[in-house]
Protein: Aldo/keto reductase
Organism: Dawidia soli
Amino acid sequence: MAERITRREALLGLAGAGLLLSSYAWKDMQKGMNTRPIPSSGEQLPLVGLGTWIQFDVGNDSTERQPLTEVLNLMVQQGGKLIDTSPMYGRAEEVIGDLTSASAVREKLFYATKVWTTGEAAGIRQMDESMRKMQRKTMDLIQVHNLTDWKTHLRTLQRWKAEGKVRYTGITHYTESAHAQLEQILKTEAIDFVQFNYSIRVRNAERSLLRAAQDKGVAVIINEPFEKGSLFSLTKGKALPAWAADYDIQSWAQLFLKYILSHPAVTCAIPGTSSPRHVVDNMLAGHGALPDEKGREKMVALIGSL
């Protein structure tokens, strides 16, 4: 909830999502969001997707679900595709399944979930249940959540991939302390995706994990891009520097995301939101120019000075 409040404050004064679109952004969005290839297949994936932790864990009340329907529609309209969830995220899988079951965006999304249990049989049951809740016959990506019993589940996922039940396999974590283990696994195991935390202040992944993923041909999904919203508290009330326009940046959210997306190893970032206005803001980070190395250095120096 803190992230939603600070984002609302950060965007105060905007009457609606449409007012986030400058003339440059409107023209650029006609070209579509920038994409990067999934190394193991060459399939193009848009740079910004959607996380669902907390925000999609809602009940059946239409007042709770309607904004989420709008979020999904806006994400697709503005070029986004990947939606990432987990059985750990309460009712999020079921909500995604319900909201997309009769939606025009149903087949336009890239569905990613996780397995988060121990034991082969328990893992299979959980993944089958995820398929049922999300109303999918096949899943685009299943990841081993936080490396829980990862050897067991990767064996199952490789078998499922061969059988066509899942298109891609992966591993995830959300803490810097797990980066070394993630790197070792992606160097030794046949996986398609690795997901981990990375942000403009939390840059441990730049030491070797990002390069290792790039070298091994493993797609990278970034979680915690806003550090649970704390970055917005840091920038509250502060104006963007004039040079941000050089990189088509119109908000602090876009600056934070463009720093991440400008790393060539990153395939997609997944900021979470339940706000239609915020999803517009986030998706715009996938459009327009990305900073070069000089721009990245200026961004880090700027945030370090706040």
User: Anything to note?
Assistant: The chain has one domain: 21-28+44-305.
